[in-house]
Every structure is written in C-alpha cells, then in structure tokens.
Amino acid sequence: MSDAAPRPIDRRMFAGFLRQHRGAAVAVTGWSLLEAVPALASGLLVAAALDRGFLAGRPAEGFFWIGLLGAAMVFRALMTRTLTPWLGRLVEPLRDDLVTAVAAGAVHRAAAGARDTAGSGVARLTVQVETVRALVSALLRSARQLGVSLVMAFVGLAALSAPVAALTLPPVLLTLLLCAPRLRVLARRQRRQLRSEEALTAAAGEAFDGIRDVVACGARDRVAGDLSARITEHRDACRAVARTASANTLLVALGSHLPLLVLLLAAPRLLDRGALSVGELLGATSYLVSGVAPALRSLVAVLGSWGVQLATVLRRLSRSTPTTEHRTPGSSGQDLPARTPRSPDLSLVDVGYAYGLGAVPVIDGLSLDIPAGSHLTVVGPSGAGKSTLTTLLAGMARPDSGRLTLGGVPAADVDRAWLHRAVTLIPQEAYVFTGTVRDNLRYLHPEARDTDLLASATAVGARALVDRLGGLDASVGLDGPPLSSGERQLVALTRAYASQASIVLLDEACCHLDPSAEERAERAFAERGTTLVVVAHRISSALRAPRVLVLDGDRTAVGTHGQLLRESPLYADLVGHWVSAGTS
User: Fold this and answer.
1) What is the CB-side half-sphere exposure of residue 189 using CA atoms within 13 A?
2) Per-residue DSSP letter, 399
3) Which 3 state secondary structure label does DSSP give 443?
4) Which one, out of 126, 417, 456, 490, has a CA that is 20 to 30 A from the CA of 577?
5) Contact (Cβ atoms closer than 8 angstroms) between residue 388 and residue 363
6) Spatial distance between the Cα atoms of 329 and 414, rounded to a whole number of angstroms
7) Angle 515-527/450-460 helices, nearest 10 degrees?
8) 71 or 185: whose pLDDT is higher?
9) pLDDT at residue 463, rounded to an integer
10) Phi and psi at residue 549, in whole multiples of 5°?
11) Nearest to 35, CA basis, from 134, 140, 133
C-alpha cells in the first residue's frame, strides 16, 4: 500500500488540472472571445448606422450596418454551439478528478484511523461532487460569458469613444471592488446557515425518533427548548444571508446605473465640444444599457449564488482529503517524527474505544500483552468488540483511552510504512481483485517470486485451488471464474502468508472453510513464527491456541482453554454452545 497522500482539493489541484487540460482551456478561451464579438461590435455598428447612414441621408448604408449587427448575433449563436462541447471537455474530467481525490482521501483517512460515517463518504462522492460539477458547468456557461461580454463591451466603448470609456469605467470598477469582499462575507454566512441547518436537522431527527422516550422521561420542555434554540440560530443565519444578499443587490443596482448617469450628465458638453457625435452617443448608450449594466448585475448575482455555493461545497470537500502531509492517527498538529518499533510485540494498557461521542464503549479498560510470535484466539458473544480489537491492533483506529504500543512505540507514532508491511488484517469477507492469481497473491509483497507464492499456497492449503484455476497466470475477479466464499478466503490467506507481515490478524477469516482447512491455515501461520491473533469461528481455534481471550466488558478474561473452562462461566457457556451446535 502506498503511503503517498492524495492530492488535496485546493487551488493547486485546479492549477494542475488546467495545465493537464491546457488544450481545452485554450480552446474555451478562444471560442469565448469569438462568442463575445457582438458585445464588442454592437455599439460601433449602431454608431456607424446613425452617423454614416440614417443621419447622413443614406438609409441603405444604415440598414447595412444594422444587418451586420444581426449577423453578429447569429455568429454568436454559432460560436456558443461550437463552444459547448469544449466546456464538457473541462467539466467531465474535473468531475473524475474530484471523485478520485475524494475516494483516495477516504481511503487515506480510514488508514489513518479517521471515523467517517459511510453516509458522509457517499454524500461526498455523489451529491457534493455532482453539485460541484453542476456549479462549475453553470459558471463556465454563465459567469464566463458575462465576464467576457463585460470586458469586450468596454473594449468596444473605448474604441468608440475614449473619453466616454474613461468616464464610465471607474464606477464599474468601484462596484466590483466593493462587491468582492461582500461576496466573501456572504460565503461565510452561507456556511453558517448550512451548519445551523445541519444541526437543526440532526437535533429534530433525534427528538422525533425518540419521541416516546422524551415523553416517558418528562423531557418535553428540555427537548423543546433545545429545538427552539436551534430554530432561532437557523433563523438568524438565514436573515444574515438575506441581509448580505440584499445589500449586494442594491449596491450592484446602483453601480450598474451610475455609468449611464455619468454619460447623460457629460453628454451635452461632449456634444458641444465635438468630442462625441449623436451616433457615438447612442452607441455608447447601447454599450451601457444592453451590455455593461445587465452583464454587471448578472455576473455579481451568479457569483453571489452559484459561486458562493461552489466555494462552500469545495471547502467541505477539501476537509475530506488530507493536506500534502499525511498525519498518523492521534497526531496532534505537531510534526513528530515517525518511529519504527524494535519488535512486533503488542501491548494494551487500559484501552477503551467507542463508536462516537457519548456511545457505550465497545472495549472498556482492556489490558493485554501479545508477545512477538505468540498465538492468541479471541472469543466472545456478538457485539463484544472482537472485530474492533483487530481494527485497533491493525492501526486502523485509535483508542479513545489507554495505551496501545507496538514494540514499545505508541501506535499513534508508529511509522505507517512499517505498519503496513508488518501487520496484515484479513476480515471475514475476503477480497479478490480483478487480475491474475499472481497479482492477487503478491499484492502485499510485490517482489515475491513465483516459487514463494506457490509455497505459500501449499502452506495454507490453497495449492489445489491455484492449480484448478490454471496456475499463477490465470485470471480471477471480474475476468475469471466465480469463486466461492471459501475459495476467496484461501486466496486472502495465501496473500497474507506470502507477505512480510510479522503480525497476522484473522477476523473469522476461515469461517467459510471446513474445520480441517481452517486448522491447516492457522497452524501454517503459527508455525512460521508469526504473531497470530484469531477471532474464533469454531471452538477448535480456541483449543489450538496457547492463550484465549474472552472479550465481553467486565467479564473479560485471559488464559488457557482449561483455565477458562474453570474460571470463566461465559467461556464455558460459549464452549457448550459450540459443542451442542456440532462445530467442534
């Protein structure tokens, strides 16, 4: 497993994306300039129609310039149609990159012990990524067009009359400068609104789900007060967003009309001095009324809605991917050097772990030593925390309390590369990747030779399966024959045996094998000196182990099979259940 952290969702990611898709970005820029030809030429054509045509007594020439304006509009529609596929060549790859970044971030966060819920990960991969795709697409269509049209309108205005451009440009720039910081304020207040909405939804959902308990415990006033406070907070957040948006709308309305007012006030003097003709005045008015004012209003509105939403969603997505540094679980924000354990000894001292704040601990006050090369079987009722224990030992989660060390090094400080080489966890549902048998077996040890892979398969009892599939070059997964659950477990067991792992955790990893095959696999790991922790599926696993851990809260006990039969009523009950079920 690679320890390289995925690329974070930030400005550098988008800069790299644009470099990678430079051709599409250049094409979009070029076609956008052509699309803005009517915005550039409209005022010039109107001025020419008046000054050279109608006012000069040549109506035919006037209609000619008006006809060119109509042709420019048709040209704009054709350019928009040509541009649309190029926008897709930017939007769709961006979506793919976001999915990759979010998925990679989820994997790395899980490897670092983060406790994300499945729902939040699915929401990021589906709703939020798709929201980014839709918003980027909308902004490329609208904000891009409006921004280019605004710039081209002023270029055309400057070409028509430099004095008029000099008079009307400052109010527009002032409006944009005043709006930019207010958009940041709007984004901050929208984030507050989203947080308050999520808090209100969560609180209301919990209250409604437990309404019977609320009534039975006489907690109606308390719950109602809490919900009222949440509602008030959400109301205040919504009002703050509305006030900021309304102020922005008023500011843009004034800013979009101010250039026209400046032109009308200066027009008599410019006309008297001959600095402006009647046609140029009408052309300049056309630029301001049909070009600058609507483009400015729409651009700020689009950025204030879609742009702020995009910034908010990207901020949320960025929290799901690590920074360029990859921190180990439990690291404080200080850059402490990772440490390599001197041995694969495992030690737990008063370890506790719960799934979520306020939840009942699954593991509570567990103290246990697992020396290097030892063999431990874990038993207990369903929900006792057996799988949770293997997750903690594998470094995939961090204890909430107590101390977990590997070779004397706190688990949070262990070098991740060493941990991934030294510890292998095989869950109940084994994974078989699409590829060859060889690819699957040497996944954890890419340098393994074919002879080592075959020897590993023989050791755990999977050699007959490898031969039946057609050898190491045979295809498995989606490209190969269907495998039973037991065959998939044999593949996973061989993969673990072929690895360099000195600690192997079998979380009911042989439950789909028959008892003799299970015994062969467990003995193979024990005899090679591997530290072996087995979550038992059958009583035979406990009988083979020198030590057994009975895990069940305050009834937790450690000892040999014989000791536990005498000293642990829970273990005796479990053994009796196994024997009566005929699984021994």
Assistant:
1) 19
2) -
3) coil
4) 490
5) yes
6) 9
7) 130
8) 71
9) 94
10) -105, 120
11) 140
Amino acid identity, position 283: G
The beta strands (E) that lie in 292-426 are given as 346-353, 363-370, 375-379, 401-406, 409-410, 423-426
Q: What is the largest CA-CA distance in the chain?
A: 118
Task: Assign 8 a pLDDT band (cuts: 50, 70, 90).
Answer: low
DSSP output for 239-286: HHHHHHHHHHHHHHHHHHHHHHHHHHHHHHHHHHTTSS-HHHHHHHHH
Cα–Cα nearest to 67, from 41, 35, 40: 41
Q: What are phi and psi of 506, to 5 degrees?
A: -105, 100
332 has a pLDDT exceeding 70 = no
Instruction: Identify the weakest region by mean pLDDT among 17-26, 124-133, 405-414, 426-435.
Output: 124-133
5 pLDDT more than 60: no
Closest CA to 135 of 307, 316, 257: 307
pLDDT digits (tens, 9 = 90+) for 453-490: 999 999 999 999 999 999 999 999 888 898 999 999 99
For 162, half-sphere exposure in the C-beta direction (CA atoms, 13 angstrom radius) is 0
| Exposure string for 318-350, b = 16+ CB within 10 A, e = fewer | bebbbeeebbbbbbeeeeeebbebeebbbbbee
Residue 469, token pair as written in the block: 């599939």
Residue 408 burial by Cβ neighbours in a 10 Å radius (0-12, 13-18, 19+): exposed
> What's the residue count for the chain?
584
pLDDT digits (tens, 9 = 90+) for 18-38: 777 788 888 888 888 888 888
The pair of three-digit structure tokens given for residue 343, joined into one six-digit string: 């041995």
Q: What is the dihedral of CA 81, 83, 89, 95, to 10 degrees?
A: -80
Highest mean pLDDT, choosing among 194-198, 213-217, 517-521 = 517-521
Q: β-strand 531-535 against 409-410: which pairing, if any?
A: unpaired
Half-sphere exposure of 482 (CA within 13 A, CB side): 2
Of 484, 500, 490, 544, nearest in space to 521 by CA: 490
End-to-end alpha-carbon separation of the chain, Å?
Answer: 37
Residue-averaged pLDDT of the chain: 81
Other CB atoms closer than 10 Å to residue 294's CB: what's the count?
A: 16
CA distance 564 to 575: 10
Tokens read off for 140? 């490329």
Q: Nearest-CA neighbor of 149 among 294, 303, 302?
A: 294
| Lowest model confidence (mean pLDDT) among 145-149, 224-228, 232-236, 429-433 | 145-149
Q: Confidence class of residue 4 from pLDDT cuts 50, 70 and 90? A: very low
Structure tokens at 88: 């897709």
Structural tokens at position 502: 């000195």
Phi-psi category of residue 582: left, alpha or beta, with phi > 0 → left and psi -120 to 50 → alpha: left
Amino acid making up residue 116: D
Sheet of strand 409-410: strand arrangement? 363-370, 346-353, 401-406, 409-410
pLDDT of 346 over the 70 cut = yes
Counting Cβ atoms within 10 Å, is residue 106 exposed (0-12), middle (13-18) or buried (19+)? buried
